[in-house]
Design goal:
Helix content: 40-55%
Order of helices and strands: HEEHHHHEEEEEEHEEHHEEHHHHHHHH
Oligomer: single chain
Radius of gyration: 23 Å
Strand order of the largest sheet: 2-1-8-9-5-4
Bound molecules: flavin-adenine dinucleotide
Structural class: alpha+beta
Largest sheet: 6 strands, mixed
Distance between the termini: 66 Å
Number of helices: 16
Strand content: 5-15%
Shape: globular
């Protein structure tokens, strides 16, 4: 297993990462190195080490028990990272599980050898204990148009050249979490492709330092714009616009090549694995809000009030629906090509509940905390000349110092750049609401409901 130090050293390579207009070394940059430190916590988390002395993240789930363990692993690591998801080996393994299933199906139908390539790649990353980002979401251009109808053909990543030793790809993927601080990037299609869109049906993996790859990191406003940050000072994940400017991929790392028929299936399978991951980390993230709301009620002296109970119940509901749907999805998997897929119905129900109700969680925290989380004097003023005066007037059921400590946390979660980021994440990350609804509706078993009503109508 790698150490944290070996991981960080590995990031000092030829990768091209840009932040606020400049090319940076991710391990040295004062803001971005927090994302590196967050990612490196993976290597400290001992519960991730399996009996075979490799990361449990790369254990292919074969049954319910394996999925339950995966849920506990993701929850546990998120708790270890202060309630912030650690994607480093989670999303990449989600993609590899989907690729294992799809590659077997393509090989059976087309006589190709993708299974060998995917299995070899899985063994390679497992042995080296690598971290993997997954770039699925294309930039997509005009959403009403298919890939080939776009004004610019690069709006979906595509194959531009086929060589004897591999392929060349061009395009850009949006919102790639932790790509700038990962060892490798796995790329899969974002949607189903038609026969005439073969060049867009492509999946592969490349090291993050590959020539032609450029990553533009989003501004980390939750840390740079917040001198009182508590969580973001220690843990956050970054996203990049990930540009593939004629990137070469050797054949051994190509996992889907022009098989347009299988692009949609691969995209959906990955989404199901990744949404199960999302339910699992969201239970832990909910603890941040539940804990902050509880402490805010104490420092405000309102812990026994009815409206506080109502607010707290909302947050408990959110957390426990995430847990219940994750566990149900693990308990009733679909088995395909000897891989256990989390039950798509429970997975999508949980994901859609999260999409619809996370803003309630934020509202509940704001309600309990009070308007002070938007209007509080700055950290600099608290530490400056007027500090004592401010603390005198900011007391609640406890003194001003203790109350402002708790309110700082409530402000970061409920009234800051981090809040805006999380509100967006909880709607879009792991796929849009529409994508989950389509998946849930398409796969839903209506037979009992229909049978019941039909038999009543006959009686
Ligand atoms: C914090 C965060 C982290 C993420 N991490 C990753 C990651 O690591 N890897 C990765 O690959 N992706 C990642 N994503 C991307 C995520 O999966 C997408 O945001 C999501 O799939 C929505 O895509 P989009 O952002 O392009 O939005 P859009 O597709 O632009 O959606 C905007 C609206 O347009 C609608 N729409 C889009 N297309 C159509 C259409 N054809 N017809 C009708 N309506 C349409 C949508 O339903 C939605 O209402 C992340 C996103 C966030 C916010």
């Amino acid at each position: 297993m790698r150490t944290k130090e070996e991981f960080v050293k590995g990031l000092r390579d030829r990768r091209k990462v840009f932040y606020r207009g400049g090319l940076i070394d991710v391990t040295e940059h004062p803001v971005i190195k927090v994302a590196v430190s967050h990612a490196s916590k993976l290597f400290e988390y001992r519960e991730r080490v399996g009996e075979d002395n490799s990361s449990k993240f790369f254990r292919v789930p074969r049954d319910s028990q394996d999925l339950m363990e995966r849920h506990r692993l993701i929850y546990g690591l998120t708790m270890y990272c202060n309630g912030i998801f650690n994607i480093s080996q989670a999303i990449g393994s989600d993609a590899l599980f989907a690729l294992l299933i799809t590659s077997r199906k393509v090989d059976k139908e087309r006589g190709t050898d993708y299974t060998r390539r995917v299995e070899n790649y899985l063994a390679y990353v497992k042995e080296r204990d690598l971290t993997l980002a997954t770039a699925q979401t294309d930039v997509k251009g005009d959403r009403s148009k298919r890939p080939k109808e776009q004004e610019d053909p690069d709006m979906y990543l595509r194959i531009t050249e086929v060589r004897s030793d591999g392929i060349v790809v061009k395009g850009a993927k949006a919102h790639t979490t932790q790509a700038a601080v990962s060892d490798e990037i796995v790329v899969i299609p974002t949607r189903a492709m038609r026969d005439n869109e073969k060049e867009y049906a492509v999946a592969f993996a490349v090291p993050a330092e590959t020539e032609g790859l450029r990553m533009y990191v989003r501004p980390i406003d939750e840390l740079e714009g917040n001198s009182s940050a508590v969580v973001s000072r220690q843990d956050y994940e970054l996203e990049t616009l990930t540009v593939f400017d004629n990137v070469f991929v050797p054949w051994d790392r190509v996992f889907l090549f022009q098989e347009s028929k299988f692009a949609g299936q691969l995209a959906t399978l990955f989404a199901t694995f990744h949404r199960f991951t999302a339910l699992s980390y969201r239970v832990a993230t909910a603890n941040l809000f539940l804990g902050a709301a509880r402490l805010a009620s104490y420092v405000n002296g309102i812990q026994n009030e009815k409206q506080v109970r109502d607010d707290m119940v909302d947050i408990i509901m959110y957390k426990e629906v995430m847990r219940a749907t994750a566990l149900s999805a693990a308990l009733s998997p679909l088995i395909d090509e000897s891989v256990a897929i989390p039950n798509p119905t429970f997975t999508n129900v949980g994901k859609l509940y999260s999409n619809a109700h996370f803003h309630d969680v934020v509202r509940d925290l704001i309600d309990i905390s009070g308007g002070i989380i938007a209007t509080m004097p700055s950290e600099e003023d608290l530490k400056g000349e007027g500090g004592e005066e401010i603390l005198k007037y900011l007391r609640g059921a406890v003194d001003g110092k203790e109350r402002t400590q708790v309110l700082k946390m409530a402000k970061e979660l409920g009234s800051s750049h981090l809040t805006g980021y999380l509100l967006t994440l909880m709607v879009h990350a792991e796929g849009s609401m529409e994508a989950s609804k389509i998946e849930l509706y398409r796969g839903y078993d209506f037979s009992d409901s229909e049978k019941l009503v039909r038999s009543l109508l006959k009686s």
